[in-house]
Automatic annotation (TrEMBL):
Gene: leuA
Keyword Hydrolase attached: no
Catalytic reactions on record: 3-methyl-2-oxobutanoate + acetyl-CoA + H2O = (2S)-2-isopropylmalate + CoA + H(+)
EC number assigned by the record: 2.3.3.13
Keyword vocabulary terms for this entry: Acyltransferase, Amino-acid biosynthesis, Branched-chain amino acid biosynthesis, Cytoplasm, Leucine biosynthesis, Manganese, Metal-binding, Transferase
Lineage: Bacteria, Pseudomonadati, Thermodesulfobacteriota, Thermodesulfobacteria, Thermodesulfobacteriales
Cofactor(s) named in the record: Mn(2+)
Organism: Thermodesulfobacterium geofontis (strain OPF15)
Residues of the Pyruvate carboxyltransferase domain: 5-281
Residue numbers binding Mn(2+): 14, 210, 212, 246
Broad EC category: transferase
Protein name, per record: 2-isopropylmalate synthase
Length: 402
């Protein structure tokens, strides 16, 4: 048996940590519902100890959203864990997500603790969380800047006491795909040597990845980790999050879907992705509206230009056969279709296609006249030409609409 990839969404926790973002309870619940409809496996609702708002959000999500795992974040101490559990306890599938940093930088400057002390704290936190809830995730914050042997020791010890998901965050977006691949492989090999091969294979033990985007590598690093054997991937919708954000889940999902054959060949088993991809764009737009974080037009999958074609050669290709310049069907991710945008790079085919699809009838000779007018008089004046404007000019120039 091979585990399927689990998608863990932290839009409501790490995503809400984006500067300037503050969601109210109603908005969080609406986003939570959208994530559940999208097919996300684990929704991290918040960090309950940090504010009454976070506590209430996790509590309400836990009560109202069924059929998915609801996670709450807690530092590795009793109080955080108790409060997280208090918020979570009505969930159908609750998960306590506890964390402590493992890098020497964090140990020295933030925690002021030795490696041995942190190892003990991690073990105790997992044990304490397990006394409330069977599903416990442990995160080794700043894992990618930690000493690999020490990190492996922490991972093995928390697995030994019962953590079922071990997250290896690239907290400051520092790693690169090849290095992260090696780190995940290294940790999995350590777990296999310690006798956990079967659990890793059947999914009762998972290595999870959580990447930040400081170098623009969050999605690439996450995919690399999946190739190395990680079976849970964490991220946010639209890639929102602290600083440069988290890995954009929609990009990871669509890469796995679009390049399924490649991933299956590399992994040696069939990939099962239970995501309703048609909900991606509506979910992205909902998150953008409520967070006030606008999605850049050229953002993969969910940007307004992601399926828009302006240059003549591309427009001709798309009109003849979509797959010439599109690797995803826009309708599969929730757009209404590709957009042929008329601009200075557009060609004859696109002008003809646009006008004909609006009901105009004309032969090729008229099209040549229209295009000539467009090319010589309009093309350089206007950056983007909307359909109605083009139509209006053509009405004046050539004929009356039939
Ligand atoms: O980036 C990070 O390390 C985190 C952990 C708390 C999982 O968000
Ligand atoms: Zn994070």
């Amino acid at each position: 048996m091979n585990p399927r990839i689990i998608f863990f969404d932290t839009t409501l926790r790490d995503g809400e940590q984006s500067p300037g973002v503050s969601l109210n309870l109603k908005q969080k619940i609406e986003i939570g519902r959208a994530l559940a409809e999208l097919g996300i496996d684990v929704i991290e609702g918040g960090f309950p100890i940090t504010s009454p708002g976070d506590f209430e959000a996790v509590k309400t999500l836990a009560k109202e959203i069924k059929g998915v795992t609801i996670a709450a974040l807690a530092r590795a101490n009793k109080k955080d864990i108790e409060v997280a559990w208090e918020a979570l306890k009505e969930a159908e599938f609750p998960r306590i997500h506890t964390f402590i940093a493992t890098s020497d930088i964090h140990l020295k400057y933030k925690l002021k603790k030795s490696r041995e002390e942190v190892l003990e704290i991690a073990k105790e936190a997992v044990k304490y969380a397990l006394s409330f809830c069977p599903d416990v995730e442990f995160s080794a914050e700043d894992a990618t800047r930690s000493d690999w042997e020490y990190l492996a020791k922490v991972v093995l010890e928390v697995v030994k006491v019962g953590a079922k998901t071990i997250n290896i965050p690239d907290t400051v977006g520092y790693t690169v795909p090849h290095e992260y691949y090696n780190l995940i492989k290294f940790l999995i090999e350590k777990l296999i040597l310690a006798g956990y091969e079967e659990e890793l294979k059947n999914g009762s033990l998972r290595i999870s990845v959580h990447c930040h985007n400081d170098l623009g590598l969050a999605v690439a690093n996450s995919l690399s980790a999946i190739l190395a054997g990680a079976t849970q991937v964490e991220g946010t919708i639209n890639g929102i999050g602290e600083r440069a954000g988290n890995a954009a889940l929609e990009e990871i999902i669509m890469t796995l879907k679009t390049r399924k054959d490649f991933f299956e060949k590399e992994l040696g088993y069939p990939l099962q992705i239970n995501i309703n991809t048609k909900k991606i764009v509506p979910t992205s737009q909902l998150v953008s509206k409520y967070t006030g974080m606008f999605v850049q037009p050229n953002k993969a999958i969910v940007g307004t230009n992601a399926f828009a074609h302006e240059s003549g050669i591309h427009q001709h290709g798309i009109i003849c056969e979509r797959s010439t310049y599109e690797i995803i069907n826009p309708e599969d991710v929730g757009w209404t279709g590709s957009a042929i945008v008329l601009g200075k790079h557009s060609g004859r085919h696109a002008i003809g296609f646009k006008l004909r699809s609006k009901g105009w009838q004309f032969d090729d000779e008229v099209l040549s006249q229209i295009f000539e007018k467009f090319r010589t008089e309009l093309k350089d004046i206007l950056k983007k030409i909307d359909d109605e404007y083009l139509e209006g000019i053509l009405i004046d120039l050539f004929w009356e609409k039939e």
